[in-house]
Amino acid sequence: MPITTKSVSHVRLTVTDIDRSKAFYDTVFGWPVALEVPADADDATRERLGFLFGGVLYQVGQGLLGLRPVATDSFDENRVGLDHLAFAVADRSELESAVTLLDSAGIAHAGIKDIGAMYILEFRDPDNIALELSAPK
To answer: Where are the alpha helices (H) located in 13-112, listed in sequence order?
Structure first.
């Protein structure tokens, strides 16, 4: 009998520069921070939160998305592992608003595409991780 799941609990992306990545994700998504080591944390707090590796966990709906700053190479969706990460938005107008935000932040994107079943907007984070927004038709 297969394992029954309700949803994805969390995803953690490995990044090279936490300050650069955090600035990107804060600008693009503005998710609330669920957990992060405070800059003025004492040694006991740093030890207790050591599993963050100096990164951050964002609250994304009912789940979490984390950034773990330990990578020394670059992302490649053609290697085993992550191909891309997609986030659902309400409708095409949300994609149009996203295009405006990405343009104003100087973030390259592929424009809104109609792929038949839905609309998508593709772009990349500072470590070249492929991200996508999708909206129903």
So the answer is: 18-28, 43-48, 92-104
Token representation of residue 136: 């129903």
What whole-number distance in Å separates Cα of residue 100 and Cα of residue 1?
Answer: 47
Residue 66 CB-density burial (10 A; 0-12 exposed, 13-18 middle, 19+ buried): buried
Which CATH fold topology does 7-73 show?
2,3-Dihydroxybiphenyl 1,2-Dioxygenase; domain 1 (3.10.180)
Q: What is the pTM of this model?
A: 0.91
Residue 97 is predicted with a pLDDT of 97
Q: What's the whole-number mean pLDDT along residues 58-62?
A: 95
Burial class (CB in 10 A: 0-12, 13-18, 19+), 4: exposed
Q: Residue 75: which pLDDT band, with cuts at 50, 70 and 90?
A: confident
Q: How far is CA 41 from CA 32, 52, 57, 58, in A?
A: 19, 13, 16, 19
